């Protein structure tokens, strides 16, 4: 897997720029803002994305193999609660109890990143990129074991792998492929393995930059990250992030 594919296939994470936790259940969110984050359920998911963040940070370059991308994501969810796992990126670490809807917000603040909806071209080029990060948590009745507890609310392994596919649109036209990968179950197929019933929570990180778009593309204008997450039951979420590069 080359550096670009590793970048696209790495696990993810996001922000509280817009409070996109849907009040009162899993109803569709309001109409998308000119800039910001919107989530829409697909079917009847028993898990949901929370704690969204949209910010500029280092991703690295082709010369470095975009290694800075992985380091940025690990810095957002530091040890001991999260540790690096070769199949997960920022994976489970020391057991810690829910809720998990503020961990990324704490990481964004600790790293000095700033949630924004308007960026400069320098935020999207020269080794910098615009990240969309969020956490996924259970909202259904399923309980079981996870790396964080022996019994509690989980997204069960039977719903994994969760497929993540995404596209970035610039002024209404495709700019790049954001994502095409799966989030695995926490089971014996991983190395190192897990012996639990499911995830208590898992992060996702999406990023784009000039490097991944058409050669010579003008960067100013409006952008839309459109990401679909679907589980093995066919349920999931559409996540849309709208922002602009203005100068």
Explain this structure:
With about 250 residues, the chain is mainly beta. It has one domain. It has three helices and 16 strands. The strands form five sheets. Strands 2, 6, 11, 12, 15 and 16 form a six-stranded mixed beta sheet that branches. The longest helix is centred in the N-terminal third of the chain and has 10 residues. The chain is globular and about 50 Å long. The N and C termini lie far apart (about 35 Å). The N terminus is likely disordered.
Q: What is the number of E strands?
A: 16
H/E element order: HEEEHEEHEEEEEEEEEEE
How far apart the termini lie comes to: 35 Å
Q: Count up the helices.
A: 3
Determine Rg (CA atoms, Å).
17 Å
Task: Supply the number of structural domains.
Answer: 1
Quickly give the structural class. mainly beta
* Large-scale geometry: globular
Indicate the mean pLDDT: 88
- Parts with pLDDT < 50 across at least 5 consecutive residues: 1-34
Largest sheet: 6 strands, mixed
Helix content: 10-25%
* Beta-strand content bin: 35-45%
Label this structure with key terms:
single chain; 247 residues; mainly beta; 6-stranded mixed beta sheet; 4-stranded mixed beta sheet; 3 helices; 10% helix; globular; disordered N terminus
